[in-house]
Design a protein that fits this description.
It is a single chain. The protein is 24% helix and 27% strand. By secondary structure, the chain is an alpha+beta fold. It has a single domain, classed as Nuclear Transport Factor 2, Chain: A (Roll). The strands form 2 sheets. Strands 2-3-6-7 form a 4-stranded antiparallel sheet. Strand 2 and strand 3 form a beta hairpin. The longest helix is centred in the middle third of the chain and has 18 residues, at 59-76. It is globular and about 45 Å long.
């Protein structure tokens, strides 16, 4: 099944790209997970423990932190900053990280990518700790090693469902889903 495109990698994302100027379909979102029992939470790594010293106590501050880390990852190609905020079960977080690494592979890069949270509201019709997050994505250009534009992603406003969970280490993104 073809997946919807997002404008900035992600979410998601990347969740997927929504307005590319080339036929290259990356990044793609993993298929929606099927219902399953929650997995056990793994113990945090040393870097995750260090990151938790500054972990926000409330969900909205955590969501802002996640998207700030994701925006940083777009500019560097290093997803570690947002992956430390994701649970091991977050399939779309892993997909976003993979797509970022691929964009920077062999000297490529992404310029002008920025994801800004416009609003974050609890999704009252869903299970606990699912948030409907509206994100503005800036126009971004994906460049190859020679500086040639591989694709251009138009700016947009995306709505992402963010499933959060809290454990002893703090908040984590359990999953992301483009709405």
């Amino acid at each position: 099944m073809p997946l919807r495109n997002l404008s900035a990698l992600a979410l998601v994302a990347t969740l997927a790209l929504s307005a590319c100027s080339s036929d290259d379909p990356e990044p793609k979102v993993a298929p929606e997970p099927t219902a399953s029992t929650p997995s056990a939470v793994a113990s945090p790594s040393a870097s995750a423990s260090a990151a938790n010293d500054d972990m926000p106590d409330d969900e909205v501050a955590f969501i802002d932190l996640f998207y700030a880390a994701f925006t940083e990852a777009i500019s560097t190609g290093d997803p570690a900053g947002f992956m430390v905020l994701a649970d091991e079960s977050c399939t779309n977080c892993k997909t976003l990280a993979k797509n970022l690494r691929a964009a920077y592979k062999n000297g490529g890069r992404i310029v002008d990518g920025d994801w800004t949270v416009l609003s974050a509201e609890p999704d009252l019709g869903d299970d606990d700790n699912v948030w409907e997050v509206r994100v503005r994505t800036a126009r971004e250009r994906w460049l190859d090693a020679s500086g040639e534009t591989v694709k251009t992603v138009a700016p947009s406003i995306q709505t992402v469902a963010m499933a959060l969970q809290q454990d002893a280490a703090g908040w984590r993104v359990r999953e992301l889903k483009l709405r």
